[in-house]
């Protein structure tokens, strides 16, 4: 009887795997009727176990096939892109080794991603780099890493605590910088959050707006006098091409009525561009320039709040290696705006891949930029 049970199970599994053997399946259905109750129970236990094993095997086999196909299909593209992108990543090496000697540069969010790569390249150019970071331990680990990479003739690294989600932290940071630093040559507003779950800053502002825009708005304004004293000096604002999908919702800027994490990120990146435009007007003739940039898609921790299904992760990682920029590649445009003689005196522009980018009209509207500036002043407490 065990032989019959096994035969029935095999035929059933075959019928699941393909649409054939329907006649055989009907044959064994009849034979099941002659099984005794205990034997029928044993049959269903064995059937369930066999079905589960087959299902798991087929799922694993399909996943392996997808991953294998992606690897084989993308292998050639991976090699080609690595060769091509290597030339782009070496652009920073064309700068004179002592280009930034004697200059002080602040980089927010310098402990990872684009910020860390930018800080590392500036250190090689012998700049005094102030890493403005929220997590001091991670900042110290990143600082040690970039110092190890920079070689013998390198600049200096200084770590200072800055939490852009706290306006009080921003004020304390600026007070410390003004007290201890005789000059600031470049301010790179790099730190940011991307599509995080709904939360608020210490002062109660929507987190993406608060960190990406308001924190940098206050930081920049509080350091303006020192930047003017250090002229010629530069301000660099890291935005995103996703600004195209946003707008400034003046009726609910703090997203109290409705929260859409994608829209809020795009809104904050559009705010970066409008802030850059209005600030450029206000700094005209001071010797301080301000420009924005969109780095493109870069392999960083910025997307850590995005949930990717487990089975898709291997394919996503492969795609990211194929088509996303490395942090070093992503750092080329902020580095270009921070130290290249080619953009000396250029202000109020946006760049991508070290070239000027044409923005949509929503990012160049002077009336919207002025209105956002006035509202931001009120929100961070600058307007008396």
From TrEMBL:
Give me the segments passing through the membrane: 55-80
Presence of the UniProt keyword Transmembrane in the record: yes
Instruction: Write the record's keywords in alphabetical order, separated by commas.
Output: Membrane, Oxidoreductase, Transmembrane, Transmembrane helix
Recorded GO MF terms = oxidoreductase activity
Q: Which Pfam families match?
A: adh_short (PF00106)
Family the UniProt entry places it in: Belongs to the short-chain dehydrogenases/reductases (SDR) family.
The protein's name in its UniProt record: Retinol dehydrogenase 14b
**Source species:** Cyprinus carpio carpio
